[in-house]
Amino acid sequence: MLGGYAGKILDVDLETGELKDKMPDEEILRRYIGGKGLGLKLIYDEFRDDMQPFDPDNLLVFSTGPATGARVPTSGRFHVLTSKSPLTGAVGSGNSGGKWGPYLKFAGYDAIVIRGISEKPVYLTIIDGKAELVEAPEIWGMTVPAVTEELLNRAGTDPKKTSIACIGPAGENLSLISCIMNDEYRAAGRTGSGAVMGSKKLKAIVVSGNQRQKSANPEMLAEKVAESMSLIRENPVTGPKGGLHVYGTAVLVNIVNAHGAYSSRNFQQSYFPEADEQSGEKLAESYLTGTTGCWGCPIVCGRKSFVPDGPFSVKYTEGPEYETIFALGSNCGVKELDAVIKANHFCNEFGIDTISMGGTIACAMELVEKGKIPEEKLLGFNLRFGDPGAMVECVWRAAYKAGFGADLALGSRKLAEKYQAPEYAINVKGMELPAYDPRPIQGIGLEYATSNRGGDHVYGYTIPSELLGIPEKRDPYSTEGKPEWTIFMQDLGSVINSSVICLFTSFALGLPQYAGMLQAITGMELDPEKLLKIGERITNLERHMNNRYGFNRVQDALPKRLTAEPTPAGPSRGQVSHVPEMIDKYYELRGWIDGVPTEEKLKELGIA
Amino acid sequence: MLGGYAGKILDVDLETGELKDKMPDEEILRRYIGGKGLGLKLIYDEFRDDMQPFDPDNLLVFSTGPATGARVPTSGRFHVLTSKSPLTGAVGSGNSGGKWGPYLKFAGYDAIVIRGISEKPVYLTIIDGKAELVEAPEIWGMTVPAVTEELLNRAGTDPKKTSIACIGPAGENLSLISCIMNDEYRAAGRTGSGAVMGSKKLKAIVVSGNQRQKSANPEMLAEKVAESMSLIRENPVTGPKGGLHVYGTAVLVNIVNAHGAYSSRNFQQSYFPEADEQSGEKLAESYLTGTTGCWGCPIVCGRKSFVPDGPFSVKYTEGPEYETIFALGSNCGVKELDAVIKANHFCNEFGIDTISMGGTIACAMELVEKGKIPEEKLLGFNLRFGDPGAMVECVWRAAYKAGFGADLALGSRKLAEKYQAPEYAINVKGMELPAYDPRPIQGIGLEYATSNRGGDHVYGYTIPSELLGIPEKRDPYSTEGKPEWTIFMQDLGSVINSSVICLFTSFALGLPQYAGMLQAITGMELDPEKLLKIGERITNLERHMNNRYGFNRVQDALPKRLTAEPTPAGPSRGQVSHVPEMIDKYYELRGWIDGVPTEEKLKELGIA
Q1: Aldehyde ferredoxin oxidoreductase N-terminal domain location, by residue (chains A, B) (predicted)?
Q2: Are A169 and A259 contained in the same domain?
Q3: What's the pLDDT at B83?
Q4: What CA–CA distance (Å, rounded) separates B521 from B217?
Q5: Other CB atoms within 10 A of residue A35 CB
Q6: Which of A93, A265, B240, B303 is most open to solvent, judged by the fewest CB atoms within 10 Å of its CB?
Q7: Which of B208, B241, B259 is the last residue of a domain?
Q8: Is B66 in contact with B518 (CB distance < 8 Å)?
Q9: Residue A85's pLDDT is what?
């Protein structure tokens, strides 16, 4: 048996109510590690080309990796996958921190596979190795904090050793931009997984237990962890005086804006003159009450915050993250950080992905601005760029499909299609774009275009290199070497999300450290090359499934605005994304033809 | 056949889907007129002492009267009744304007009796005499304006001759303070009828038709109408230069505050220093876009309004009424009229009674102020007197039972009971009190205490006499003659709500005018005395049913705050309500013992 794993996968059939333990195949773990890789393989084993998002056999998989809950830095994460995302139509995928991942392992399981649709609302508890489904129509409709409090009370276990993952009203109401929340403020945010969980009538999963996993080589692990901890502590980004700890991810607002890559007003601009008013510095100055970190994390980038007064008052909350400030702030033309904090709080409370929410609001605002949405469809709602109240109102309206909120719950692509103006949905594969304008940062544009889950930045995070010079500087304006770097970061991302470790360690660590720690935990013979090959396998397996859904070169593209409309102002004025010029090189390096891995490539990677 | 009636009652069984026409008994019409009286009799015929609000046989009755849709002033109204109110436990009752009432009659029916619970969401259409139930799960969840627009489109009839009554999300979610809306902005607001309609899974009733009813004596009617029209036009309140038309009902804000009867902060005060900022004058100055009236109304007290900017922006809406400004404004300590307009808009959009909503928010704010609600129950929500943002947030939270909103959806009495502090719920029989502090206005306090539907002001509206000297001045501080006057106004109110005519005509008209117009329409021999006897019969029938539910003297009481805590400041400083000293005289005059009509009284009125 490999070290670091709990050794069991829980199989839940919500239609029959049957719960089964499966033993994970050691060969699969060697080839896919855990987390995202393991989840993809579990989904692939039951794959169906004509799957629909709300079909009973659309699997919902929660998975941890050997590093989850192990004594390594940032071991508090887990991965969520769905066979088919209701937002993108591709495989659905998200990653989250907090403590739910390690607590699932301490409860005795590496992963949970959920199938079927329950007739009545249920929740799942896994306590000390014992899993149980509980019928609970009375908790349906509860917000994330309310159901978290309720189920913590019901569990009767030590609340410090218990964790809840759940959906909010947005997931129940099948909003396509809903997410799965855990520990109240943590989110597996993207691709609408909340709606899949909602369609299954599964409200929450409670985990608690004391089963710690043994590592294969404790001495080696101690040594490798010590090395990694030193690197993290000494690093200017991840260390105790680093930007992430001092200002949270919001430290990026001023940095990215100074580069002219902090998009505004639905990517009509790539620069936001009022960025300083919503920066990490401003957050620390006016709204911060403390910091918070995920389980086992030495970086501690989480923010505790509040808004003491005014129309956006909130007594206590967590966040907002950099991405959220962009999405709900700048991208909506909203400068007021208090409104962003309030809207972020609502996203957490109701279970909505903040990036997709902001991108959808921005899209709606532009559709109104351009006269594409007739006034009577807004039913009195005054929706305009730069209006903080309207932005905040959009969030709860989307969660409850209240009036125009029913349109917002569709996400930007379906919203813009409804009003015959798809060009205003700034998305890739239906998923709203993150907080780096791809026009002045060529590598991240290629990641947006090619990422398997749609408009994503963290599954191939080129930003440290392109903007911060970590581990080495790559000119953001240049396309030179970007296909290579994007591919490397994507496959590294697959490794990180399968381990599961936090992406932010990659500011300080590299493949040698990841390989060393994983080898010490599991006992697998690993080196950087072998590990990266696993990453490539994982990336290709996900791509392969998407191909079978019908995805190919056509979907590997940015919205026209980003390749045809030069940035109009700011430090990066006059730039467009050159994805169309990089994509063939990218495919060639990947061993893909028109976005589809060749049979040789699949064979080489051992994908059937 | 009597004139003025359509001559048919529609009986709808939602369980079986069966629709039947019933002919109204002429003797019943002679004894109960129509509207409230007719509805009460229909409910009484199937009365059950142990009825529960969400039982299938809790009848929901919509009823018009002979004046509805007739060529008399203010003939645009109808009445709604439920056998048992989920808010009060008494008979549920509300009255509304707009055009739905006359359009129901033009569609061929005097009333609709709805029984049973539909398995799936449905709506009812009555078009040109043909009634149909339509299964429509897809409209469940829609807001009031959204479903109104949708069903107007589906009807395919002339939208100017079509009208929709419906519930919003609050009614669907069984909020105890939900109402039934019609014509988007009109409400049969009180006693939680929206929840009864919601429990039956009936989303809306569409009415359209061209069947005008004939009056018994058209010449006499023309003469009587001309007389009433002159009186209305010449009256300083109802005329074209009168306060109601020029400033809407909000004209009362400054008048009532000047008397020290404009309660504030959950009736902790009876005076609001900032009242001028939310007055009818302020509304006209800053937020008004036009006026609007119900069908057949020469007074036109309705307001069209907007909030152009700021966090409470709304592009177009109607209202707010005086009661709403008090309830959501002053009573919550909120001075900002823009926030009140926004909250009023949400109440209309989601189908919530504004008076009960404001009273419940005020109660919650005081429970927080007094430390009765533990902070963790608020889940980060910053709920405080005087906070306009928090007040507005309460409304949509209550509609969707979002977080703490689930508590707000209970109404003030059940909310305060949940937190073991019932003394902070300022209600009578579970219904929140309206906008006249009863401490410096003795008559209205007696109406609040004795009204059959709970804390009500319009079923026995003593205010014109006590505050405005119409038809003659009665000293508001004095108890002298108040039992007599309250009884008279209650029985007159029963007549008005059964005719159905607008209460506001009573500023200008009296029993001779009502009797004359009703006689001309119906052909019944009527005079003031006979008509008032009918009113007494109606008041007593409702009282009798409530007695059978267990109501008696105990429930005919004001909250202790109003009888024991003298008004602390303002023009009326030092006053308490003297209801306990007036109640025995009231009962004696009524022919009741401890709140229960004697057998003699019931016999005298012909109530079995």
Answers
A1: 5-211
A2: no
A3: 98
A4: 6
A5: 33
A6: B240
A7: B208
A8: yes
A9: 98
Phi first, then psi, for residue A413 (nearest 5°) are -65, -50
Rounded CA-CA distance B487/B481 in Å is 10
Q: Is B29 helix (H, G, I), strand (E, B) or coil?
A: helix
Domain assignment present for residue B271? The answer is yes
A345 in B contact zone (CB under 8 Å): yes
Alpha helices in B401-467 (DSSP H): 405-408, 411-418, 442-450, 463
Q: Is the model's pLDDT at B608 over the cut of 80? A: no
3-state secondary structure of B431: strand
A175 and A34 both lie in a single domain: yes
- DSSP-derived letter for residue A212 is P
Mean pLDDT over the full length of chain A: 97
A311–B316: do the CB atoms touch at under 8 Å? no
Q: Which alpha helices (H) appear in A107-179, and where do they start and end?
A: 144-155, 169-172
CA distance B388 to chain A (A): 7
Return d(Cα A140, Cα A248) in angstroms, integer. Answer: 33
User: pLDDT tens-digit profile of B474-506?
Assistant: 999 999 999 999 999 999 999 999 999 999 999
Please give the full DSSP string across B165-183, using - where no structure is assigned. EE--HHHHTT-TTB-EEET
- At B19, the amino acid letter reads L
CB count, 10 Å around CB of A155? 18
- pLDDT value, residue B59: 98
Q: Which residues of A touch B392 (CB under 8 A)?
A: 311
Q: Would you give the distance in Å from CA B327 to the centre of its chain?
A: 14
Domain residues for the domain of B539 are 432-605
Is A387 an 8 Å CB contact of chain B? Answer: yes
Backbone torsions φ then ψ of B123, nearest 5 degrees: -130, 160
Count, residues in chain A: 608
CA distance B176 to A28: 55
C-alpha to C-alpha distance for B347 and B178, rounded to whole angstroms: 9
The verdict on a CB contact (< 8 Å) between A350 and B402 is yes
Q: What is the CATH number of the domain that holds B30?
A: 3.60.9.10
Q: What is the pLDDT of residues A278-313, one digit of tens each?
A: 999 999 999 999 999 999 999 999 999 999 999 999
Tell me: the pLDDT tens digits for A229-252?
A: 999 999 999 999 999 999 999 999
> Among residues A388, A413, A431, which one ends one of the domains?
A431
Q: Which of A164, A160, A130 is nearest to A144 (CA)?
A: A164
Whether residues A444 and A410 fall in one domain:
no
With an 8 Å Cβ cutoff, is B312 touching chain A?
A: yes
